[in-house]
């Protein structure tokens, strides 16, 4: 029975837990009640703890105080979705209790776990039973009692896991929605997997393999360049964080038509490209079809050759780490205020992003239901916004908590996170802004505007499911009204007609129809005609939103 663990052991346990959660994330995703193909609980929790695992691999902490501090800091920045934020808060509690401690025994573990639970409960406005909060609270309670029986770290962890499993099984009875769907809570399941992964590492059980895929190439091999004739001028290296799960084969083939010396290293969340080309701008523009450009370095190889020929030192693209450090330092410097108000919005799709920019938003973070941005993603954009007061429009209920974590992380700006749960709510809020108004007046006006809009969506079921007595089959069209299931249909035309009639019943005067990725303009015009017939008195517009997953996103005011 292991009595206590040091920093190195605890780091290994957390890395193992991350691998375990990554292996189980799809099973956890499938516990979500609505079978919408999106960034679900398993994905969000896996990405969150995965950030910590990456930091722990690099820094190899000696003490548990160092290990928990590294973990808490990384997870705070990498938290995605409500489940990821709650998980980060639990480990923030760990960090506070373990500060300056060399090792951790069973008593320490119980104290840390319970401190984390308290931190998580405080952050949730209306804690509900039958969630990860319940599972973690009961696990912490059992850990405390176990530590009174036996102070061994392993004994307390095992006891906490046993109680967590019991609590998880009972979530189906505590939450009416889960009971109707016949599943346990997804976040609670993720928490159990993490604890079990930690125990498995302690007992020498091998961690599950990570998802297959080519490892990210840290540095491209440019050693042979000096012996080659320079066919293309610019040595171009860039990193893209994926926002669309499009295969890179087409991009690879396209890059080969504009350059040579092509190397693409793929990771789970990002990919790195090295290419020699005469048009690096074209390559960077094309790359944004696959995700968000995070880093780019372009150097003129002909100039490099001339520098070397003259006996001077030529710049090299093998110093990306230094460039990343420079950019990171810049990102942590707040842009000086040039105006009173600034605005940051989250949206997926070029069309939706354009709408927000046209309404005066300073920065749009690519993300939403298909991929929840992390706290760090939101924080970076806030810091870039040159304003005294920055309003954040999460535009998704699962992003609000991650955005709220930014409020205390920015010193020189006031950050206000609005409770915008949908893109139409965010758009309505921006329309209500008065650039010359007082802060309280603007906040009130934006909140009032959000409350006057209904959001209707059409997506599809990614898997078979059942909700509230309704059988849902993979491929069915799902109709959502204000984030609630409104119905299912086999025919998209019928689905649109139902929403058009519902818009008429709600007395919609202003209706905006945003059609998504893959929807043809001619089909969108037919949808417009359906709404015009059902709501002849309304002012109706149709716009290309370009959003993934959702065929149509409809705003009704």
Provide the descriptors you would attach to this structure in a database record.
557 residues, 20 helices, 18 strands, 4-stranded antiparallel β-sheet, alpha+beta, 48% helix, 6-stranded mixed β-sheet
Structure in a nutshell:
By secondary structure, the protein is α+β, with helices and mostly antiparallel strands.
Provide the spatial order of strands within the biggest beta sheet. Answer: 15-14-11-18-16-17
Helical residue percent band: 40-55%
Q: How many DSSP-defined strands? A: 18
Mean pLDDT, all residues? 85
Main beta sheet strand tally, sense and closure: 6 strands, mixed
Number of helical elements: 20
Secondary-structure-based class equals: alpha+beta
The outline comes out as globular
Low-confidence stretches: 211-229, 316-321
**Rg, nearest Å:** 25 Å
Q: What share of the residues does DSSP label as strand, in percent?
A: 15-25%
Could you give the distance between the termini?
63 Å
Write structural notes for this entry.
This protein is of the alpha+beta class and 557 residues long. The protein has helices spanning 7-29, 41-59, 64-78, 81-98, 106-123, 132-149, 153-174, 176-181, 186-202, 249-258, 280-287, 301-309, 320-331, 350-358, 375-384, 400-404, 423-431, 439-451, 492-505, 521-534, and strands at 4-5, 104-105, 234-242, 259-266, 270-277, 291-300, 339-347, 363-366, 387-393, 414-417, 454-460, 465-467, 470-472, 477-481, 484-489, 510-515, 539-544, 552-556. The strands form five sheets. It has a six-stranded mixed β-sheet, sandwiched between helices. It has a four-stranded antiparallel β-sheet with strand order 4-5-3-6, with helices on both faces. Strand 9, helix 16 and strand 10 form a beta-alpha-beta unit. Helix 2 (41-59) packs across helix 3 and helix 3 (64-78) packs antiparallel against helix 4 (81-98). The model is unreliable at 211-229 and 316-321 (pLDDT under 50).
């Amino acid at each position: 029975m292991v009595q206590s663990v040091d920093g190195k052991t605890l780091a290994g346990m957390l890395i193992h837990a991350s691998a375990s959660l990554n292996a189980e994330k799809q099973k956890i995703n499938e516990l979500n009640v609505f079978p919408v193909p999106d960034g679900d609980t398993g994905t969000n929790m896996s990405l969150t703890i995965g950030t910590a695992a990456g930091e722990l691999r690099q820094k190899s902490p000696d003490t548990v105080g160092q290990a928990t501090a590294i973990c808490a800091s990384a997870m705070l920045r990498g938290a995605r979705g409500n489940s990821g934020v709650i998980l980060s808060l639990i480990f923030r509690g760990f960090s506070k209790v373990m500060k300056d401690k060399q090792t951790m025994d069973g008593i320490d573990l119980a104290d840390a776990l319970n401190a984390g639970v308290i931190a998580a409960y405080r952050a949730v406005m209306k804690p509900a039973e039958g969630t990860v909060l319940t599972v973690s609270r009961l696990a912490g309670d059992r850990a405390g009692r176990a530590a009174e029986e036996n102070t061994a770290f392993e004994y307390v962890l095992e006891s906490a896991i046993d109680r967590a499993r019991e609590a998880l099984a009972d979530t189906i009875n505590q939450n009416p929605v889960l009971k109707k769907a016949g599943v346990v809570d997804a976040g609670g399941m993720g928490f159990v997997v993490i604890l079990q992964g930690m125990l498995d590492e302690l007992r020498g059980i091998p961690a599950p393999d990570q998802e297959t895929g080519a490892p990210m190439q840290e540095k491209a091999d440019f050693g042979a360049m000096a012996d080659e004739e320079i066919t293309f001028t610019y040595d171009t290296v860039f990193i893209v964080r994926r926002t669309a799960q499009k295969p890179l084969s087409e991009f690879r083939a396209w890059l080969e038509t504009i350059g040579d010396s092509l190397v693409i290293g793929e990771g789970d969340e990002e990919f790195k490209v090295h290419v020699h080309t005469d048009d690096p701008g074209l390559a960077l523009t094309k790359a944004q079809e696959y995700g968000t450009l995070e880093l780019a370095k372009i150097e003129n190889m002909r100039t490099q050759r001339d520098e070397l020929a003259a006996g001077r030192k030529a710049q090299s693209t093998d110093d990306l780490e230094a460039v990343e450090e420079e950019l990171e330092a810049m990102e942590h410097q707040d842009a000086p205020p040039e105006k009173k108000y600034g605005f940051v919005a989250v949206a997926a799709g070029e069309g939706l992003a354009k709408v927000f920019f046209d309404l005066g938003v300073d920065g749009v973070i690519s993300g939403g239901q298909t991929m929840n941005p992390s706290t760090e993603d939101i924080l970076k954009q806030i810091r870039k916004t040159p304003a005294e007061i920055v309003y954040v429009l999460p535009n998704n209920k699962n992003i609000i908590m991650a955005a709220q974590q930014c409020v205390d992380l920015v010193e020189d700006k006031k950050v206000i996170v609005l409770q915008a749960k949908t893109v139409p709510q965010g758009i309505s809020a921006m329309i209500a802004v008065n650039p010359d108004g007082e802060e309280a007046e603007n906040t009130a006006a934006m909140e009032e505007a959000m409350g006057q809009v209904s959001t209707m969506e059409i997506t599809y079921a990614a898997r078979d499911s059942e909700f509230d007595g309704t059988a849902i089959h993979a491929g069915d069209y799902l109709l959502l009204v204000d984030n609630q299931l409104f119905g299912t249909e086999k025919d998209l035309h019928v689905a649109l007609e139902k929403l058009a009639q519902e818009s008429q019943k709600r007395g919609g005067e202003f209706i905006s129809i945003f059609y998504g990725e893959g929807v043809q303009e001619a089909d969108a015009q037919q949808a417009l005609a359906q709404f015009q017939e059902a709501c002849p008195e309304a002012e109706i517009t149709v716009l290309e939103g370009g959003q993934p997953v959702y065929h149509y996103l409809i705003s009704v005011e």
